[in-house]
Amino acid sequence: xxxxxxxxxxxxxxxxxxxxxxxxxxxxxxxxxxxxxxxxxxxxxxxxxxxxxxxxxxxxxxxxxxxxxxxxxxxxxxxxxxxxxxxxxxxxxxxxxxxxxxxxxxxxxxxxxxxxxxxxxxxxxxxxxxxxx
Amino acid sequence: xxxxxxxxxxxxxxxxxxxxxxxxxxxxxxxxxxxxxxxxxxxxxxxxxxxxxxxxxxxxxxxxxxxxxxxxxxxxxxxxxxxxxxxxxxxxxxxxxxxxxxxxxxxxxxxxxxxxxxxxxxxxxxxxxxxxxxxxxxxxxxxxxxxxxxxxxxxxxxxxxxxxxxxxxxxxxxxxxxxxxxxxxxxxxxxxxxxxxxxxxxxxxxxxxxxxxxxxxxxxxxxxxxxxxxxxxxxxxxxxxxxxxxxxxxxxxxxxxxxxxxxxxxxxxxxxxxxxxxxxxxxxxxxxxxxxxxxxxxxxxxxxxxxxxxxxxxxxxxxxxxxxxxxxxxxxxxxxxxxxxxxxxxxxxxxxxxxxxxxxxxxxxxxxxxxxxxxxxxxxxxxxxxxxxxxxxxxxxxxxxxxxxxxxxxxxxxxxxxxxxxxx
Lengths: 133, 424
Description:
Helix content of chain B: 25-40%
Low-confidence stretches of chain A: 108-133
Structural class of chain A: alpha+beta
Mean pLDDT of chain B: 92
GO molecular function, one term (chain A): sarcosine oxidase activity
CATH topology of the largest domain in chain B: FAD/NAD(P)-binding domain
Radius of gyration of chain B: 22 Å
Structural class of chain B: alpha/beta
GO molecular function (chain B): nucleotide binding; sarcosine oxidase activity
CATH superfamily of chain A: Folate-binding superfamily
Strand content of chain A: 15-25%
Largest sheet of chain B: 8 strands, mixed
CATH class of chain A: Alpha Beta
Organism (chain B): Paracoccus sphaerophysae
Oligomer: heterodimer
Number of domains of chain A: 1
Largest sheet of chain A: 4 strands, antiparallel
Strand order of the largest sheet of chain A: 3-4-5-6
Radius of gyration of chain A: 15 Å
CATH architecture of the largest domain in chain B: 3-Layer(bba) Sandwich
Domain Rhodanese (chain B): 44-88
Largest interface: A-B, 26 and 23 residues
CATH architecture of chain A: 2-Layer Sandwich
Number of helices of chain A: 4
Shape of chain B: globular
Family (chain B): Belongs to the SoxB family.
Number of strands of chain B: 18
Strand content of chain B: 15-25%
Order of helices and strands of chain B: HEHEEHHEHEHEEHEEEEHEEEEHEEEHHH
Number of domains of chain B: 2
CATH topology of chain A: Folate-binding fold
Shape of chain A: globular
CATH superfamily of the largest domain in chain B: FAD/NAD(P)-binding domain
Distance between the termini of chain A: 36 Å
């Protein structure tokens, strides 16, 4: 069974505890974008046979969305990280490169419109957990 | 010993052939299809020797006289989803474009054994889709009315009649009482391998090349046009390339430089030990994510659920088996006494609207036939028929036209997720 460690609450959650949310790091196109961009955002997917980045929700746990890197053929999990980023952390990318020599991040992941990398987003770390008064 | 491509082929199958071979200890049967080495060029290359790919090749030859065709296959013929499905055939879809292509397929299945001179064991034993919630009941009543307008014969059956049709069924619930069912008497099953084998034999008879163990490693394009495919057995040039590879469509499209609105996920099935005949219809219970038929060998063939995430493993997650079986044994209590023999998975290609894609692509000369999701087997002849027309003419005919890729940009979905979200 697929097991992912939630980066928020630290629980090693089994697949039945999680809700899959599809491909991660999609560039959001909305009003004012071209039809092609909007269609691509809504429907076109990398759907890679190999390393993929995807969204998950710890549905029967802390309830938060997070992102994970996984191999779609072997189900090997490379790591999970908070969702407040537009790119996977650099150390995770390095770990995947070490495990899968020759692997290249897909274009949508490596190229960001604003030119920032995962490290820039590390300056804005995991937000404090909401406290319910 | 002669090379595979020079081995003797079998002639026409008939009762006389059986009698003749019986007289000589069956020493005279030849190969059903030839296994040639690929040439360096074909008019049409079809990637994927599953049911859809082979049917496309067959109708290219039969309907359009195009026989300069190679069907290339990564593994063995029919070893993908063609050999992994639960063999269900039906055409009781909600939307008109779906009903048209699936009913075309069903009509072709009805005479396929005679057409191919190959027994595909089509068994129109009838198919029932159970309504086990009020919501589902309303949905199926709507489908019955839609089918009436489409000219697809289906009818609503009340629980009392269902009890007579399926004596092993527990109608009373308590969690999922059976409220009625959508009954298509023309639906049924066929031998899935035989469908691929029959088409392969007929294609081989027309002089087409079926090349197994030949993985495509790259697609060569020039000026927005397809030039060739690179394969494990060398470079093969082509005028037209048809990608008919189900779960691996995104991988192949990636080689040609475009993306598809497809996600590949694992769908599971399992089969029990063989028992005496007890179920002579196909029963689908979509609320509990299970569908059931009894094979000619006596095994209970059970289709299960899909994973919700991208998965190329051909296994699927164990807990779906548990969910399927747990729910099914409420409706079919006798299943609780059965041992399961095998469990397996296939990689299905899901689109957002749960309808297939038969389309031109951004690369001229490349055509895709994919997105059949969890229910491609039933569509094989219709899909091949429509795809052959698309490839031969370069523009889709009436069956394929609604299923173009452009429907996603236009927001013109053929939404079958109600009818086919899980069991298909």
